[in-house]
Specification:
11 helices, 272 residues, mainly alpha
Length: 272
């Protein structure tokens, strides 16, 4: 019995890559799924690491509150220990800390996966910025998180003082951890702003002249953005976030001018 070859059978289909390097929608979705899976695995590994050192991590997060209580007991008349009000709160807090910590540990992998997903849409001369993009993004995120952590004691002091003289502080561990982690991530995300500006200048969407000419609007926008993304809403945290963002804005403009000058110098011989 002769077998008839059916070219429409699923096993015989062999999608050939396009000669121009473009990808179909299905290929884009497959690539996105692959990047998400790799990032998720990196987060999972980070969560396991945080779980193994949970007590040390929790003690590190509580350090600003402990320092505030040691410096002035009026802010902590009931002591610096936190409480739980739900039987499952301890477990949920442990998982939440592990998740946030795992995300922080996996940040370089996540940024790399994002970059690899974006790379096919870039030109050849733009792909060389991969390593600087990853290093600067991770460094600035960690710098923002450190600033949030260092200013947390003063922020807590301000927030507790505004509760009133007749109010005694006794805080849930879950809500305290949520405040600390949200502050760290808000500052970290805010510090990604100059990376975005430099990237937009390198690909030609913006010019340093445009950014420098709009510096007044940039100051206003940065202050408003800092007020919106700061979880605590206190002026100390707002200032601690807005001031570095303003400095980094002009640093990004300076990098744009340097890149623009190098680009013109490189294209000058070709023009002659």
């Amino acid at each position: 019995m002769r077998l008839i070859h059916n070219p429409m059978r699923r096993g015989d289909e062999r999608p050939e890559p396009n000669p121009d390097g473009t990808m179909t929608l299905t290929e884009h979705l497959g690539e996105l799924r692959q990047r998400i899976i790799r990032a998720a695995l990196a987060i999972l590994v980070g969560m396991i690491v945080i779980m193994a050192f949970y007590d040390r991590v929790l003690g590190f997060l509580l350090e600003p509150y402990h320092k505030l209580c040691e410096s002035d007991s009026d802010y902590c008349p009931l002591g610096s220990r936190l409480i739980i009000t739900d039987p499952v709160e301890g477990l949920s807090t442990r998982v939440r800390i592990a998740m946030y910590g795992g995300l922080l540990i996996a940040l370089p992998v996540i940024m790399w996966q994002i970059w690899k997903f974006v790379v096919p849409a870039l030109k050849a001369n733009e792909k060389r910025y991969a390593i600087p993009f990853i290093v600067s993004s991770v460094t600035l995120f960690l710098l923002g998180s450190v600033i949030a952590y260092l200013t947390l004691e003063k922020a807590l002091q301000f927030l507790i003082a505004w509760a009133g003289d007749d109010v005694e502080g006794l805080f849930q561990v879950s809500k305290y951890v949520r405040l600390v982690t949200l502050m760290a991530f808000a500052f970290g995300v805010g510090f990604q702003f100059p990376v975005l500006l430099v990237f937009l200048q390198l690909v030609g969407v913006l010019t340093p002249q445009q950014l420098l000419g709009a510096w007044r609007y940039a100051i206003l926008g940065i202050v408003v953005a800092a007020a919106v993304i700061t979880p605590s809403g206190d002026p100390i945290s707002l200032t601690a976030l807005a001031a570095p963002m303003l400095v980094l804005y002009f640093v990004a403009v300076g990098i744009g001018f340097i890149a623009q000058r190098r680009s013109r110098a490189a294209s000058a011989p070709a023009a002659t």
